[in-house]
Write a structure and sequence with these properties.
The protein is mostly beta strands and 143 residues long. Helices cover 13% and strands 48% of the residues.
Length: 143
């Protein structure tokens, strides 16, 4: 009975930390229009975080190619494109030192991802160019 209690206690301690992770599926929302645009899946690869577009809501944009992207991303389909690259952990639920690509204009920004301390279902996604930045708030997709 004691071992069963310890097992449930440990499981209860692990579950909240899993729910607090930035890893998962996120609905992207345009910061200017408020329009829901896509779903990005954030995952860990080789100790860093990456994110790719796994769904595009606007049917007329699903087959778009990233013509303005550079390097390996040039002329790749936006659907399936890895837009978040090489994010490193910089604190509890904060990731920095990676990049995010805007597939609409091909521009690459230094990126910071931060899980909202009060709402683990909201992710602050900030792209930087020098001292200027732009922030979007993405919403977790359950399941």
């Amino acid at each position: 009975m004691r071992n069963l209690f310890i097992l449930f206690f440990c499981f209860g301690m692990v579950l909240p930390s899993v729910a607090q992770s930035v890893i998962g599926k996120w609905k992207t929302i345009d910061d200017e229009t408020g329009i829901e645009k896509s779903i990005v899946e954030i995952y860990k690869k080789d100790g860093k975080l990456f994110g790719k577009v796994i769904e595009i809501f606007d049917a007329s944009k699903r087959d778009r190619i990233c013509k303005l992207c550079v390097g390996d991303d040039y002329n790749k389909p936006v659907l399936g494109l890895e837009i978040i690259k090489s994010m490193e952990e910089a604190g509890k639920n904060v990731y920095k030192n990676g990049t995010i690509t805007n597939p609409e204009d091909g521009k690459i920004y230094t990126c910071r991802l931060k899980l909202d301390d009060n709402n683990p279902n909201q992710l602050e996604v900030r792209g930087y160019v020098a001292f200027f930045f732009r922030t979007q708030y993405w919403v977790r997709i359950e399941g």
